[in-house]
Amino acid sequence: MVSMRSGRFPRWRGPAAVAVGALPALAFPAPALWWFSYVALVPWMLLLRSAPTGRRAALEGWLGGAGFIVAVHHWLLPSLHVFLVPVAALLGVLWIPFALLVRELLGGRPAAGRAGAALVLVPAGWLLSELARSWQGLGGPWGLLGASQWQVPPALRLASVGGVWLVSLLVVAVNCALVLLITVPGARVPAVAGMTGCAVLTGVVWLWVPRPEVSGVLRVAVVQPGVVAEGADGTSGPERRFATGERLTRTLAGQPVDLVVWGESSVGEDLAARPDLARRLASLSAEVGAPLLVNVDARGSDGPGIRKSAVLVGAAGPTGDRYDKMRLVPFGEYVPARSLLGWATSVGKAAGEDRVPGTTPVVMNLPARPDGRPGIRLGPLVCFESAFPDMSRHLTRRGADLIVAQSATSTFQHSWAPAQHASLAALRAAEDGRPVVHATLTGISAVRGPSGERIGADMPTSASTAAVYEVPLARGTTLYVRYGDWPVAAALAALAAYCAVAGVRTLRRPAPEPSPPPARTARG
Fold it and tell me: What is the per-residue pLDDT for 411?
């Protein structure tokens, strides 16, 4: 019990908030307990609704949010070390509105009207935190709750309507309804109605929303070199990685292939400065009969700084199609406010030099295929960028038939990171109705069809191989591509309306009557 007289709270509540806030991480790869996400928030919400004061609820929302960030991103410890803790503390603040809404709308014994409002506003409050931390400067949209449903076909169909945001809203709404069922017997009707509504919406979308219409097949080869160390003969890691990619690509000769994809940082020298490497790539393209999409991680000869660039190479050399990575990984590829936070490089593997970001997305044109089939337009993304729904959507709107994400997670080889990253391909494919090829240096490489379905076998982190995938192409436009992040706009509108109503009620509330002066007594 809380001692209201002393103003002190049980000491266990703070650590409990951190622990229950971390629970949803189990729904993501590698555990991938997708079903757990529908109950994972219940313990946290039960704690928040019992908070004695709004200040206490805010504190426990902050601590729970920090616990969630650490749990989902624990694999960053080799890079950030102790710096992950202040980062989590900063981002944990974003869950304070969610916590206050839980206490206000679910605390005590809410009437049916307040319980119904909670089913809308509490998920909206959660989405507010996801939206805020999706800004690149705060780490980007990694670990969005809806992304835990990457292997659930009905959830992927929902993503085609409202993106990962709609899936997050429904997952939180189910958690909210369970809290009402557990704690408020009088609110069982709106709770059951809310859960039924979520099920009906999912069923309607599954039955009535059109599936992508398959329009052909593209044979795409993914080359995954695996972990490559520096050679005993003095050759560098990048040189040996290039040679391994070269060797694996040659095994594709004689097979019908339309495109060969290498992973992020697969070429360690600028091709304009190293024409010998450009010639070797051109020779490979001619040998396998298909263009190569490689990724150059080098200081360019045409400008200052290091860039990560997707470069298309044909039999005659680089085609001129090039995309420079636009959204860089905080601390991994640049240090925000380096003059202030540059010390992070001394305690972890933060970037010693800031990469130079690109300025515009690019859609590349593949040449017409030998059998007369028209060329395909591909939209490249580099690593971290596949976490951003807006980037693949923009490429699709610009006419991309195929999304290719080139990645490298070798720093986090034996962690949850490779599986988490590969899972994002299913979300992006379902959202945009376009196949996604996720090609990495060291695994997990994966290919997903235009509904987010698995195409072929994923390449595990132990593999060093090249494989050809028959990737189904699709035509048409999903509702998400057409209308964008409308669930976010709806959630923000609901929160704004709630704040406006609460403000009006506060203004209309009569001021408290002044207390009468103390009565005088004979002794007074």
Answer: 79
Three-state secondary structure call for residue 119: helix
C-alpha 35/C-alpha 22 separation (Å) is 16
Sign of CA dihedral 177, 180, 183, 184: negative
Contact 89, 421 (CB under 8 A): no
Write out the two tokens for 293: 């999409």
Does this model's pTM top 0.85? yes
Is the distance from CB of 225 to CB of 148 less than 8 angstroms?
Answer: no
Q: Which of 142, 115, 150 minimizes the C-alpha distance to 452?
A: 150
What is the rounded CA–CA span in Å between residue 87 and residue 70?
9
- Write out the two tokens for 17: 């908030």
**E strand residue ranges, 352-401:** 364-365, 377-382
Encoded tokens for 437: 């090829």
What is the C-alpha end-to-end distance of the chain, expressed in Å? Answer: 41
CA 122 to chain centre: 21
Identify the CA nearest to 310 among candidates 346, 267, 350.
Answer: 267
371-389 in b/e burial notation, b at 16+ Cβ within 10 A?
Answer: eeeeebebbbbbbbbbbbb
pLDDT digits (tens, 9 = 90+) for 148-207: 999 999 999 999 999 999 999 999 999 999 999 999 988 889 999 999 999 999 999 999
Q: Which of 368, 321, 363, 322 is nearest to 218 (CA)?
A: 368
Spatial distance between the Cα atoms of 441 and 408, rounded to a whole number of angstroms: 5
Confidence at residue 5, expressed as pLDDT on a 0 to 100 scale: 41
